[in-house]
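Appendix B. Chain record.
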Amino acid sequence: MWILVVGPEGVLERRGGAIEILDSLGCRVRAVDLWDSMDDENFADDPPAVILVEAIEEVDAGRAALMRLRAVPALAEVPALIGVTVHALGRLGLGEEFDDFALVPYVPAELYGRIRRAEWERSDFNMPERLKMGSLCVDLAAHEVTVDGRYVQLTQQEFALLRFLCQNRGRVYSRRQLLERVWGVDYYGSSRTVDIHVRRLRMKLGNAIGSLETVRGVGYKVKAP
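Structure tokens predicted for this chain:
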């Protein structure tokens, strides 16, 4: 993985800054000036794992930089941290678009830990016993679903439908196919059964299942990463 560090030129090059610390930890780092324009072509083939905006005291400038970064398609979903002093921390609101913050001066272990945590929370992966899509985690072995670490209670069929769609991301399935694959070939329910369970999943999981799409005239799918 590599990390994109964004900040004013003088801040980026200072002793004890994020670039020096991350380099010493063996991370691949690329620096971009806070006010430079961003081009999708520079990141499309190899986007960063995490973005760190070194705002220090300039919280508003950090927000403006994040808005420009989010306008670049390849960076729109990359987790982003803001580096701020304790004095500036009070100017960060609860509704910030940043995934997390790191206090300046940095403590190397804390900075690295926050970066890895942000990467984990937005990461997607499929393993034999666990599926993860951003904040949503489906534990197949324990038959449990969590969102941001919070347990969400699902019925047996809700869990089965979620598991099937997540394990087959990117593929569209008709309601009849879902009835056969999830409920079984001997089930004689109507297609409305699928619609009801999809609606319940959306109600219980909220934004965590935003990748579950209705394909008009066909059925449902979970978008591929």
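Further analysis of this model is presented in Appendix C.
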